[in-house]
Amino acid sequence: MKHLTGIQHLDSDQLNMLLDTAERIKECEEDYAGILQGQCVANLFFEPSTRTRFSFEVAEKRLGAYVLNFQEATSSRQKGESIYDTLKTLEAIGVKAAVIRHSQNGLLDDMHPRIGLALINAGTGNEEHPTQCLLDLLTIKQEFGCFRGLKVAIVGDVHHSRVARSNYYGLTKLGAEVYFAGPPCLNQAGASWVPRGCWYPFDELVEEMDVIMMLRIQHERHEQALTLSKADYHQHYGLTEERARRMKKGAIIMHPAPVNRDVELASTLVEAPQSRIFKQMENGVYVRMAVLYHLLGPAAKRQVQPVNKGAFPLGAFPGT
Length: 320
Hints:
This protein has 320 residues and is an alpha/beta fold. It folds into 2 domains: 3-128 and 283-301, Aspartate/ornithine carbamoyltransferase (Rossmann fold), CATH 3.40.50.1370; 130-279, Aspartate/ornithine carbamoyltransferase (Rossmann fold, 3-Layer(aba) Sandwich). The protein contains 10 helices and 10 strands. The protein has a 4-stranded parallel β-sheet, with helices on both faces. It has a 4-stranded parallel β-sheet with strand order 6-5-7-8, with helices on one face. Strands 9-10 form a two-stranded antiparallel sheet. Helix 1 crosses helix 10 and helix 5 (130-144) crosses helix 6 (162-173).
C-alpha cells in the first residue's frame, strides 16, 4: 500500500496527475460516486480542524467509503496506546486508509514503512500539509491555466507554516517563482528548504505578484507571544486595503484559513472579487477525492482523460 506523506517526495508528473484527476472529478463527479464502496477510511485528527477534516469526510462519503472518525478522548490512547499501535489495530480490523493530523514532525515518515494501510498526511507539525498544497495548486491552475512564470508571494508566519513548505515544493516543481515576506522573527530564510534571496519586504512584492498567499499567525505553535499588536501586524505585514489596491490586474488573494480578519488581511478582502479563499475550500473536496481515488480506487485498472492534457495512465499512486 502506498502513502501520501508530503509534496517534497512527488515529481511534477505526479502533481499534474492528481490535479488532472481532481478536475475530472469536479466535472464528472457522478462517474466516481460509490467507487470506494465497501472500503473503510479512518480520520485521526489530534489537532483541531474544520476545513481539512470535514472536506476529507465529504470526499470519503462521496466516493462511497465507510468513514470512521477517531476520538482520542474516548480511545485507548487514554490508556497509553501508541499511535503506531492504534494504526495497527485499524489495519487489523480492515481499515484501508488513515487520514492523520498531528503536531509531531516526522510522525508519518517513521511509521509508513511498517504500516500496511495507506497513510495520508492531513498536516503534521510544521513540516507539510500536502492536500492543502494540492487544493491551492488546483485553484491557481483554474485561474491561470499553468504555473510556469507565475510569481507567487507567501506572506506571514512562514516559520511555523506547513502550508508554506508544501506550497513552496509544489509551486517550484511546476515552474512558478516563489517569494516570501513577513516579520523578521518569523523569517524562515535560514531553513534548508528556503533558498537564499527569496525573502523580501512585502511592499516590494505587492505590485509584481500574480498570487498573494497570506498565512495565518499560528499562535498555538509560538513558544513566546508575538510582540506586535494585531493592528501593528496588519499595518506592517498584512494585506491591507491600500496594498490590495496596488495589486496587479488579474492577481488573486489566497489564504489557507481560518483567517484572522484585519490581521493577516483586511476583513473586506476575504470575500472581495480577487479573493479565492472560498474557492480553495471548495476545491479541497475534489483534491481529496482524487488522492483517495489514487490510493484506494481502481486507478490501476482505468484510464482517465486529463483536462486539457494528453492522457496519463492512472496506475497505483507512487509511494513516498
